[in-house]
Each structure stands twice: as C-alpha cells, then as structure tokens.
Design goal:
This protein is mostly helical and 180 residues long. Helix content is 79%, strand content 0%. The protein folds into three domains: 63 residues; 60 residues; 38 residues. It starts with a helix and ends with a helix. 16% of the residues are buried. Keywords: Membrane, Transmembrane, Transmembrane helix.
Length: 180
C-alpha cells in the first residue's frame, strides 16, 4: 500500500470511528442503540489508537459474557424477545403519531416528542436487538465449548490487566528509586 493510500485509509477509519463514537454517545441520551454505536466507534478507533484498544477489550469480554448468559435459559430469551418487541411497539406508536390523549398530564408538545425519527430509531434498535439475540442463540445455545471460550477470553483478559498493573508498579518503583 502506498503512503498516500495508507494515509487515506487511516483518515477514513478515524472519521468513521469518531463519527460512530459521537453518534453512540448522543444515542445514550436519545433513543437509539447508543452502547452498540459507542462500542462500534471504539472498535474502529482501536485499529488506530492503543487507548481505544484498551477500552474495547473489557467491553468485548463483557459483551460476549452477556451474549452467552442471555441465551442460557428459555425464560431469559423470552424476556429479551419481549423487551425488543415492546421497544418496536413503542417505535410503531411514534410512527403512527396518534393525537395527544386527554389524560396526558404534560403540554401536548411533549407527547411523542421527536416525531418519526424517534420511531425509526426505536424500531431499528429493536431489530438490532433481535438480530443480536438470534446470533447469540446460534453461537452459544447448547454449545458448552463456545461458552468455555468466553470464560477463557475472560481469564486471558484478567491476566493482561494484572500484567499491566504489575508493569506500572515496577515502573513506579524504578521512578521512586531513581528520584524521577
């Protein structure tokens, strides 16, 4: 890859990563898949920045653990499906935009605020959640080897974190010893 092509690729990855990260942080406060977008932004940025790699590692481990645990039992799966369908139902309500009901205690502007954009993000979030649940069920349901791989991933992560802590302690002791 030429230098210009490498620089263009790096710039494109950084723009994509920062855009996803910003959208994810905004979606944490607005309707939408905030955590997923935040993680996606950090994952893209982790190809360029060591700090992003360190931030992504524990999130990745926890996400795989949550995916494996989320499909351990049928009631958990059913509750997850029900939650995603409720989010989709609220999204459909936003898209339908019925008039403000007489029992609504706030100003009419606060009834289904945000309009159709909120409805679309709720429906998209629901579809993403159902897709991730399906993937988790396919990957982990009834597959103890896959669940064991997640446990191994967690163990390796703990070892890396402990090694980094020990390296920082050693470095601090050297600085203290040499009066830095």
């Amino acid at each position: 890859m030429t230098t210009a092509a490498g620089a263009a690729k790096r710039l494109a990855l950084e723009i994509l990563g920062w855009t996803l990260l910003l959208a994810g942080v905004l979606a944490l406060f607005l309707p939408g898949p905030g955590l997923l977008l935040t993680f996606a932004g950090l994952a893209v940025l982790s190809t360029q920045y060591a700090l992003a790699r360190r931030l992504v590692a524990p999130v990745r481990v926890r996400a795989w653990r949550a995916a494996a645990e989320g499909v351990e039992t049928v009631p958990r799966m059913m509750m997850s499906i029900l939650g995603a369908l409720l989010v989709a139902a609220f999204g459909a309500l936003w898209l339908w935009s019925p008039p403000t009901p007489p029992w609504w205690p706030l100003r009419p502007e606060w009834w289904l605020f945000g309009g159709p954009a909120v409805g679309v993000t709720l429906v998209v979030s629901s579809v993403i959640a159902l897709g991730l649940l399906g993937y988790a069920a396919h990957r982990f349901r009834g597959k103890p080897d896959a669940v064991a791989q997640v446990a191994l991933m967690e163990q390796r992560h703990r070892v890396r974190v402990a090694a980094r802590r020990e390296a920082r302690r050693r470095l601090q002791r050297l600085r203290d010893k040499h009066g830095a």
